[in-house]
């Protein structure tokens, strides 16, 4: 009995010692990964990979070390080399949405679209709250011109991260290509509120102007032509076009920004009215009702200058400089006004 107790105590001491070393290895591995991330951020990719390899050697069960190594390989154009590394992440952490997202990106870049979609969908099943999976799946569908699926993915991504401008842009493009111009218009406006001062902002502004002018042409000072197809009548496009025309009718000497502000005010109100006849709960709650509130406020001039910034920087800056109070009031309205799904 004493011999058995002695043996047990010896084994216990050995276990505790081993556990102690193991914990030191784990902590050391984590430290090396952090050092590798800093090197990656500094553009020192080879040095970063060396750190990750050291971390893996110290603790082969550290999924973060494999993840960061895979990410660095992907960042340096070595996506195929990253595949087995990322697969190791999933072996250690089967619910890693980020790992599935990286695999999907690698296969998408390699033109293996079906494989990419498979990875994104598997990732969504394992980690449905990982926003990038929904977004990247939507981008893949958009490239395939599968616009309804792209729209669905964009909605899921927006719900997870409403401040992700690229998801808003995805929704705007997916709906535009389905001729859902009311949806696309409000999505572009939302995108421009999130990202007003980039090259993509100029693109978004042009989409806004294009949607408002679609099917509306002025032949002379007194005559305006409106063209519309039967499909557009059922979609409510006629109401939008009439709103655009009525917004500036009889008004002269308007600047481009003033004209746009009046048109958007009129169209926002009409879209919210038309939504009562449609079954689009997400669009109605998140977009139509929000922009109706904006149209009924005193902030449309400031809003219009903001969404025009990417295309008309000097003009917008000049207006902001002369109307600081209005800009502050608009920012305060945005921060306090809720948007519901």
Category from helices, strands and their pairing: mainly alpha
Estimated share of beta-strand residues: under 5%
Bin the helical content: over 70%
- The end-to-end span amounts to 69 Å
Spatially, the strands of the biggest sheet line up as: 1-2
Radius of gyration, taken over Cα atoms and rounded to an integer in Å: 27 Å
Number of strand elements: 2
Question: What kind of assembly state do the chains in view correspond to?
Answer: single chain
How many helices in DSSP terms? 18
What is the approximate shape?
Answer: elongated
Chain-averaged pLDDT: 90
String of helices and strands: HHHHHHHHHHHEEHHHHHHH
> Any idea how many domains?
3
* Biggest sheet overview: 2 strands, antiparallel
Q: Stretches where pLDDT falls below 50 for ≥5 residues?
A: 1-21
Write up what this structure looks like:
With 341 residues, the protein is mostly helical. The chain has three domains: 30-78, Serine Threonine Protein Phosphatase 5, Tetratricopeptide repeat; 94-179, Alpha Horseshoe (Serine Threonine Protein Phosphatase 5, Tetratricopeptide repeat); 191-215 and 238-341, no CATH class. It has 18 helices and two strands. A two-stranded antiparallel sheet has the order 1-2. Helix 4 runs antiparallel to helix 5 (97-109) and helix 9 (165-176) runs antiparallel to helix 10. It is elongated and about 80 Å long. It starts with a helix and ends in a 5-residue tail after the last helix. The model is unreliable at 1-21 (pLDDT under 50).
